[in-house]
Design brief:
Elements: H1 9-17, H2 19-36, E1 43-47, H3 53-60, E2 64-69, H4 72-81, E3 86-89, E4 102-108, H5 117-127, E5 128-139, H6 144-154, H7 158-161, H8 168-177, E6 181-188, H9 198-202, H10 205-211, E7 218-224
Helix pairs in contact: 1-2
């Protein structure tokens, strides 16, 4: 998610209850759900599931969801938020599942804070069944959000100093290097990171998303494993 603060379960909750966070989360999740297509009856793995809100959304759509996250606090929060789902602690670069286990996968704002992104994507591909789909959601480079975060990193914020921001081409190339076939690339969250302006400008997100990824704070890629 395009959070404005470092991620912890309590900060996730505070973000979602803010005016900016509520609008932004709704747009990002809506874009990911649209790009995922029908998931009813499919097995799905959310890699870096955080506190489980995306797991919950896919579960409501009928997917059989499993989550994994490296942070034990996030795992605990996800179990509380989505009690009927399986949530495990683990590393995206060494997933504890056999090859060809899942029909779908999601990896949202994971690569931006993870070393060895190629290794994580190779693991995601490994655990997908032939023809299986993968959703990537990442922080866009060409946005006011990214500029603000870079400034915070230069000013001493270690969370944003180490973050990586992507162009749409870079994200698609990462997926292709992992052996995935990219189907669609879309953008979202084109407004500035100011709570008062988000609601009126959010209505422009859908038409802009179909035209360009430039200026998007959030990038989404839909890809699949060759069958």
């Amino acid at each position: 998610m395009t959070m404005a603060v470092a991620a912890t379960p309590s900060r996730y909750q505070a973000w979602r209850t803010s005016r900016l966070g509520e609008v932004t989360d709704r747009l990002e999740h809506g874009l990911l759900l649209e790009m995922a297509g029908p998931v009813r009856g499919l097995s799905m793995l959310d890699i870096g599931c955080g506190d489980g809100r995306l797991l919950e959304a896919f579960s409501r759509r009928g997917a059989e969801v499993v989550g994994i996250d490296a942070d034990p606090a996030m795992v605990e929060a996800a179990i509380l938020n989505v009690p009927l789902c399986t949530v495990l602690q683990g590393d995206a670069r060494a997933l504890p599942f056999p090859e060809a286990t899942f029909d779908c996968g999601a990896m949202v704002t994971v690569l931006c804070h993870l070393g060895e992104p190629d290794k994580a994507l190779a693991e995601a591909r490994r655990v997908l069944k032939p023809g299986g789909r993968l959703l990537l959601g990442e922080l866009g480079r060409s946005s006011l959000w990214a500029a603000t975060r870079r400034l915070r990193g230069w000013a001493g914020d270690t969370f944003w100093r180490s973050a990586r921001f992507f162009s749409a081409n870079e994200l698609a190339e990462l997926a292709e290097r992992a052996g995935l076939i990219v189907d669609r690339v879309r953008g979202g969250v084109y407004y500035p990171p100011w709570g008062w302006i988000a609601p009126p400008l959010a209505r422009l997100d859908r038409p802009l998303s179909r035209l360009t990824t430039f200026g998007a704070a959030f990038l989404a890629v839909a890809a699949h494993k060759p069958g």
